[in-house]
Design a protein that fits this description.
The complex is a heterodimer of chains A (about 130) and B (about 160). Chain A is mainly α and about 130 residues long. Helix content of chain A is about 75%, strand content about 0%. Chain A has one domain. The termini of chain A are far apart. Chain B has about 160 residues and is mostly helical. Helix content of chain B is about 60%, strand content about 10%. Chain B has 7 helices and 3 strands. The longest helix of chain B has 24 residues. Classes of the chains: A mainly alpha (about 130), B mainly alpha (about 160). Chains A and B meet through helix 1, helix 2, helix 3, helix 4 and helix 5 of A and helix 2, helix 4, strand 1, helix 6 and strand 2 of B.
Amino acid sequence: MTDFATIPLWIILPIALFLVIGSTLTLLGAIGLVRLKSFYDRIHAPTLGTSWGTAGIVIASMLFGSYIEGRAVIHEIALGLFITITTPVTLILLGRAALHRDRLEKADHLPEELRSLPEARDRAASD
Amino acid sequence: MIRRLIPHPLLSFALLLFWLVLTSFSVGNLLLGGVIALFAGTMMAKLQPATPRLRRVILLPKLFGIVFYDIIRSNLAVSWLIITRGRRGTRHSGFVPLDLELKDPTALALLSMIITATPGSAWIEYSADEDHLVVHVFDLIDEDLWRAQIKGRYESLLMEIFE
């Protein structure tokens, strides 16, 4: 067990800074997710947590691990990279599902040009 | 011959690198990781015959730099909007339709990640027949500005890299 009090200030300050930045952004993303009104708005909030929210925590963890172990600890980069790569897949799936449902329900909040499928627009244009 | 043994050199190399980063470095792990990486590359070639072609790899760091900067900027912008409850309710979100010239599937995948990973914009729908893209923007002030940003900052660079 490491005695945290023995870690010098010059390294603990940046670690704390990145940790606070990362966790604050993740928290704000969560608050936004709860408080925003429409589904499409909500899609944007969690990306705070998955971009710099993750990056802040990953950088803090790398600094801390590297100092404690006395060598460069970089495997956290893999974590950050996978979160960055996989989140868009989920969000795009959710966005498309929402659009599909809004089209079926002919939702009012959907702008005119999005109410029909691209293929249907094509047919309408060639008629 | 080399192409048949290593159909996806970049993918295999990246996988091997990850293997070594996640385990501790040793000759055994280098060999095991190498075998797994080559096997995964062969499987990938069976799934998708076309290997992504990078024409100007030298521009990739520039793209990453731009995206890195934009993500920091939009993180601040979206956080501020959530804290101030959308500038006291004056924020409007909306859909931005735009036409793309980009056709390369890998480049499009990268563009969708860039747009979605950046807080404040989300990739909603893309039609490959029409090269038509719809993006949802969290804080929509000027549609044309967003079109110019996506086309000028990302699309043109991706076209230079991939096409």
